[in-house]
Amino acid sequence: MEKKILIVEDEFVVANDLRTILMKAGYQVCGIADSMDEALELIHKYHPHLVLLDIYLKGKETGIDLAPMLTEKNIAFVYLSANNNDSVLEAARATQPYGFLVKPFREKDVLVTLDMAHYRHAHSMESKLRKEQSLQLAITNIMTDDISWDERLLQVAQTLQPVVPFDFLTIGLKHNNTGQLTYAASYFRIGFNDYQTIPIQSLYNILGTDAAQFYHMCVSKPANKNIFNGGDFQQLFATQPLKQIIAKKYQLQSNLAIHLDLGADNTFIFSFYSKLPDNYTHEHLQAVSQLEASLRLAVDRLLAHEEIQKLSERLKVEKNYLQEELKTNSNFEEIIGTSPLLLKVFDQVTRVAPVNTSVLLLGESGTGKELVARSIHGLSPRKDKLLVKVNCAALPPSLIESELFGHEKGAFTGAFDRRIGKFELANGGTIFLDEIGEMPLDMQTKLLRVLQEKEIERIGGKLTIKVDVRIIAATNRNLESEISAGRFRLDLYYRLNVFPVMLPPLRERKGDIPLLANFFGQKFAKKTGKQFHGIKPAAMDELLQYHWPGNIREMENIVEQAFVLNNGNSPLEWGRELRNPFTMPSMADANAPEATPRSLHDVKELQQATEREYILSVLKKTNGRIRGAGGAAEILHLKPTTLESRMEKLGIKKTFITHSDSQA
Fold first, then answer.
1. How far apart are CA 281 and CA 274, in angstroms?
2. Read out DSSP for 135-157?
3. Which CA distances in Å does 121 have to 1, 39, 74, 76?
């Protein structure tokens, strides 16, 4: 194949002599140009293999100005010159030509120089191809190795150093939808192969910026331009002022910015900086750009593997959570009752379930708030996802943040593994925050941020995690009073109280009491294998007259206790006297007249006294044993941690129980 040669020479006589020599030797001369503009037109039209290039041309541009463009297009070039100025020749040599022809020249010199130029160019291209393949293989191995992202990025930086020398490098993976650098770091070279690693969050702090500003003013590059040497780098500060701060802090004078589109909404970012003013060339740009295909494949595999790991971890956590749920008995299997107040609750649940509105369930303890939360979730479009329960009263303040938002391995003492929090577990589903009024104030602030931003951060984590969670909260406290007392945030209250649902106490649903009692009787008949012969009329009258401070939960416990004591051949009667707190005799004088509570505080105290008495009776029956089969927690249908929390609040201690037994 004839080799095409372009002659760029402003002296026509010299150019014509060269054309004669070349055509005689069998070369194809595709044109003669006397200026850079004309040369570029002919290059675009004919794609020559080699250019004979004079240093001085018509117009302002010289052959030295054209040389980098030829290198960019992988076109070999040989200088033609009669110039003996040392500075000019030094500038010409810096462009790395494939030879020099000094005017006047002989035919033999021209042909020998061209042969050498073709040979060097061919071997240069082969060597360059081998280096590119070697670099691609090394980067692919690093990206697919089983190491952390921090170690992976550092190894990529170390591998690129011989190919694209740098003193400072920002490298990372950007998600195009969010604009965030999901895995990223910066490296400042402090030795031959030693680097100071600067986590991306630390760099934000150094520069006094956030992720969005950092990307816009430091990592993004102007369209169609990658290389910023000397004056170009200085001009860049006007649109990317953060680069000026980096340049000043680390004494940098040039920059090479490369964005590789990896598809699937991901872009790999490289921003190289050097202390030299003219460090970066098109060869550096081309070397890194060649990594696009191998990086795309490696990152796709890596992210797919990570997604599989995340899904596996999530499925494992969901499985464990659901297994724990199966161990926990619900207070009742379905909502029982036909009273007008309960039917109003049904209507509210039906209306709010299909929409994504936050719901606040209000009512006394034991009125079935968890069951209503399950009904809302079950009737919502999120029913195929998890309903995750969090009892805010049962969690120690030191652990509640980790329980809600999760933590990374090593985030604090005892964090031996990464933990997915309840919000992340509930992503796409519903989270039920029971006893929300018990949440500490500092956690209320963090919860408010999650509700506003719809994102969380694991303790010790570097990334924000978007979550799509519906909130159902419940409390038996008067939140307005808690706000007045400074124990609950007003702004959080407004966030939660979008759709309040008030659950009526059992004493206001007298007509539902026989239905509930018989329901629990049938339930425990199946559980114990005993026959259910109904409830004695006198016992049913007691139920109807009782005030029910513990509501439905208390009724379930009373019926269960009766089943334990019943022989299975007679109707149920209660194992203890049902005494209304409003008519409870004084401990000092059993014959004293019935006392009437003076305030809501008195009612709560009487309610707690009743609950304390009942828990004590169960604990004495189990000899103080809380956990395991036949333990107090199982009898009361509570989690052991929940029972222990209630005991602590009611002042019940194991030592007291044991002492009481020894005195009996």
1. 12
2. HHHHHHHHHHSSS-HHHHHHHHH
3. 16, 20, 9, 6
Arithmetic mean of pLDDT over the chain: 82
Residue 643 has pLDDT above 50, yes or no: yes
Tokens 């931003």 locate to 453
Do 466 and 406 contact (CB within 8 A), yes or no?
no
- Tokens 């794609």 appear where? 47
Q: Are strands 168-175 and 76-81 parallel, antiparallel or unpaired?
A: unpaired
Q: What type of residue is 96? A: Q
Helix (H) or strand (E) holding 325: helix 292-327
Paired sense of beta strands 266-274 and 359-362, if any: unpaired
On the 0-12 / 13-18 / 19+ scale of CB atoms within 10 A, 386 is buried
From first CA to last CA, the distance across the chain in angstroms is 113
Q: What does the pLDDT look like over 251-262, one tens digit per residue?
A: 999 999 888 887
Cβ count within 10 A of residue 391: 18
Residues 39 and 33 sit within 8 Å (Cβ to Cβ): yes
User: Which one has a higher pLDDT value, 254 or 309?
Assistant: 254
Render 519-551 in DSSP notation, one character per residue.
HHHHHHHHHH------B-HHHHHHHHH---TTH
Q: Which tens digits make up the pLDDT trace of 417-448?
A: 777 888 888 889 999 999 999 888 888 988 99
Strands (E) across 13-98 are located at 28-33, 50-54, 76-81
Bridge-based pairing state of the strands 180-189 and 168-175: antiparallel
Give 278's contacts (C-beta < 8 A, 6+ positions apart). Answer: 229, 230, 254
Q: How far is residue 385's CA from residue 390's CA, in Å, rounded to a whole number?
A: 16
Rg (CA), the chain: 40
How far apart, in whole angstroms, are the C-alpha atoms of residue 152 and residue 145? 8
Residues 6+ apart with CB under 8 A from 350: 379
Q: Which two tokens stand for residue 278?
A: 């003219």
